[in-house]
Amino acid sequence: MNLIASSRRTATTVAAMLLTLALLAGTWVVATAQRASALDPFTGYLMVHFTGESASGEQIYLAHSTDGLNWTDLNNGGPVVVSTVGTRGVRDPAIVRSPQGDKYWIIATDLRIASGTSWSDAANRGSTSLVVWESTNLVDWSEPRLVNVAGSISGAGNAWAPEAIYDPATGDYVVYWATNAARNGVTKHRIYYSRTKDFQTFSAAQLYIERPGTQGIIDTQIVESPTSVGGFRYYRASADGHITIEASNSILGTWTTIGNLSHMGISNGTGGGNVVEGPMWMPFNNGTSWALWLDQFATGRGYMPIRSSNLGSTQNFQTVSSYNLGGTKKRHGSILQITAAEQSRIVARWGSTAVSRIQSYNFQDRYVRHANYDVRIDPNVSPAQDGQWRIVPGLAGTGTVSFQSVNLPDHYLRHESFDFVLARYDGTSTFRADASFRAVAGLASSSWTSYQSYNFPDRYIRHYAYQLRLDTITDATGRADATFRAVG
């Protein structure tokens, strides 16, 4: 009887163990498949960044590269998405892809120094929220939303330089950022973290990185090393007086200091030399080396790359002399390796567009131009760029076009009360609708083009007394006034 009972218990235990192993194996397979699905062959790189403290520089800009060293500005050098929440400006953006490769997020600091905010106010009495955008395809982005990640930190003065990394151990994302607050009698920047599955609901903030004494830390970024070259799974670079490189086998585990870049004459201020910030990791698509981009903010020269084939020692880092960052200054951001499909979508939507002039049908010596942000048709436009446009995919979506200024690439042609102005893109759905048009066969000649309003489809772009208006068209004069063609 006891032998039978013992056998039954043994069988039950074995069955339970087998079931547990099967479940664990299934979980491992699912997790591995999810992580691998985002690792289709990478063919390019996408950089998300801001450009500086100009009127529109603290917004989201994109650049594309096929080799990781030579970059082309997307959207003709204009911002791609614009913050309409919080301070109405963003810095230090990070871009995140889901393990399945079916969702993307941009998170950024809610800060606009260009509005007149002082650095002291921003650090001590600033926004404790991050700005978040979401996309399923890298080209169509949601409206921005605020997430108050640092609101629960006692005396929090800000929330700066956010980053996020997927944690396979828990199936969620670790979001981390810098907050300036008093702790143990010392007020300084420390790195805090929170967890989220959807970038909408976040766990309470917890302390992540604190340096000894009064040394603060603002910028830090983690990269995963899939081949563990150097002996660790994760590496992070932090701006804490030096550019300190650390390593760990788990995101929230114990970190080992590898070294810093003082031997290269590079620091975050404590060591002098070339003073940099905003370390930005980029694994090369060949899988054998990494770039660490550093923002040379002290000299205003923007990013520079250094390269390593083994992150296990800072002695492996070497400077890179041949690179090109394109036409805009690249400030603190992040880089995403992208697949051929992702690259195709991005270039189709945001790639460079030819420069055109918009010629009037019935006054063929006149072209659409902006002057003091008003829009009209003139002959002999001077300076010439005032009459040059890029006809880009419409801000309001498929089937429309928008007119982007060549010399003011963050400005678009839009109607206001049926009058036309050149206005800076403010990211709102109203702006997108006002600045989008359907190109249709010319009302006066089918070989030319007329532009129908997206949000007032009974109205068309036309000139009246040489000024551009949005009108209903009822006669032959109106049809001629509303007919144009794009010429090189």
UniProtKB/TrEMBL annotation:
Coiled coil: none annotated. The keyword Transit peptide does not apply. GO terms for biological process: L-arabinose metabolic process. Keywords: Hydrolase. InterPro entries: AbfB_ABD, AbfB_ABD_sf, GH43_arabinanases, Glyco_hydro_beta-prop_sf. Residues 357-485 form the Alpha-L-arabinofuranosidase B arabinose-binding domain. The keyword Hydrolase applies. Pfam families: AbfB (PF05270). One of its GO terms (molecular function) is alpha-L-arabinofuranosidase activity. PANTHER family: ARABINAN ENDO-1,5-ALPHA-L-ARABINOSIDASE (PTHR43301), ARABINAN ENDO-1,5-ALPHA-L-ARABINOSIDASE A-RELATED (PTHR43301:SF3). This is Glycoside hydrolase family 43 protein. It comes from Antribacter soli. The lineage of its organism: Bacteria, Bacillati, Actinomycetota, Actinomycetes, Micrococcales.
